[in-house]
Amino acid sequence: MADTSTAAPYPATDRTVPTRYRERASYDRELVHGILDTAYLCHLGFVRDGAPVVLPTLFARVGERLYIHGSTGARPLRAAGQADPGLAVCLTVTHVDGLVLARSAFHHSINYRSVVVHGTAHEVTDPREKREALDALVDQVVPGRSRDSRPATAKELAATAVISLDLNEVSAKLRSGGPNDDAEDLGLPHWAGVLPLAPGYGEPVPADDLDPALAVPEYLTAR
Amino acid sequence: MADTSTAAPYPATDRTVPTRYRERASYDRELVHGILDTAYLCHLGFVRDGAPVVLPTLFARVGERLYIHGSTGARPLRAAGQADPGLAVCLTVTHVDGLVLARSAFHHSINYRSVVVHGTAHEVTDPREKREALDALVDQVVPGRSRDSRPATAKELAATAVISLDLNEVSAKLRSGGPNDDAEDLGLPHWAGVLPLAPGYGEPVPADDLDPALAVPEYLTAR
Asked: Which residues form the signal peptide (chains A, B) (predicted)?
C-alpha cells in the first residue's frame, strides 16, 4: 500500500464541511485511513424510492478505494449494478472512545472518531479485483485470516456482488478529552470526567464440530 | 413505560422485509426495544440535495418514540424543523456481538443485532416534551445520570433542537451462533468459531478540575 502520510488532504467540499464544530473536522488522509483501518463495520446510506435507507454492512479499504459485498440479490448491490452511472451512497464509520460526563446535562457528550464518505458506488466486474476485494473484506475483520481459510469458488464468486467506492469526498470528525463545563458549573457536586470505551474481546469459542487438534490461531489470541 | 411485552409486533412493510436472510428478521417489539435500549449511538440517514447523508448521533427511546438532539444549526435538525410534513429519515442501530470465522472465506460473518427504523422526523416544540427528551438522551448513555447533573437552562434549551421519530415501521435483524460451513469443508485445517465481542469499559478518568472529594458514582462503577 502506498505511503500516503505526506499526501495532500482530501479536498473539503460543501457537504464535507460540517455546519457545527468545524474544529473537530479533518481531511487528513493518514487520520482517515487510521479510523477506517481499525473498523470493519460501516453504515451505508442510499436512496430508495426517494427515501433514505441505512444498513450496517462490512467494508474493507484497499488504498483509496472501499469495498462492500453482499448477495447479488441484496438491494443496494443490485441497485449499484443496475444504476448508471452507479449508486449515490454515503458510507459512515464510527468509533466510540468514551462517554463524557459533564456537570451540566447540556455538556454531556461522547468521545468519538468518525469518517463520512460521499460518492458513487460501482459494481466490481473485474474478476481479479473482485477476488482481491473479498480477501480484503475478510482481512479487514481479522487481519491475516484470508490466507487461513478456503478461498472462494467460482460459484461463490458468482453469488457475491462487490461494489467499490473511491475515497474522494471524505471527512473525519473527532472529539477527545474531558468535559467542557461552563466556569460557573465547576463547583457543582456532580462527578465529571470520561468513561473510556474500547472493543472488549472474549475468549474464542470453537465451532461445535471443530477438530480439537486445531489450536486458536495467533491472530485471534493477539486481540 | 407501558408494558409492551404482549403487544402486537410492528407490521412488516415492503421496506422492512429484507430481500435476503428473511429468517434473521424480527418485528417483535420487546426484541426491538431491547436492542435500542442497550445502545445510545445510531446512524441517521436523510436525503440532502437528492443524495444520501449518514451521520452518527446519540438517540434515546421513550416508549414508542425516539429522540435525537443537536444544535439548532445542525443540518438534519434544521431540515426537520423546516420540512413539512417533516424529514424522511432512516435510523439504524447496530450491536456487533462476535466475529464469525468459518473454514471458507465465503462463510465468514459477524454476529450482530440491528434495528432499522423508517419514518418521518418532526421537531419537538412542546417545552415539556423537549426537556424530557433531553433527560432521556443523557440517561440513554448513562442510566440515572440526568438526575445527577445540572438541568438545562432556558438558554441551553433554546440552543438545542430535538427531533422525534415514532416507532411505526421498524424491523430488527439478528445473527447468532457459530459458522455455517459447507459439509465438505468441515475437515479443512482452519480454526473455526466465534470471537465474542462486547463493549469494554476502562477506569473512569476524572476531569482535571474535579473536586477530589467527589467519588466515582455507582452508575459508572457498575458497568
From this structure: none
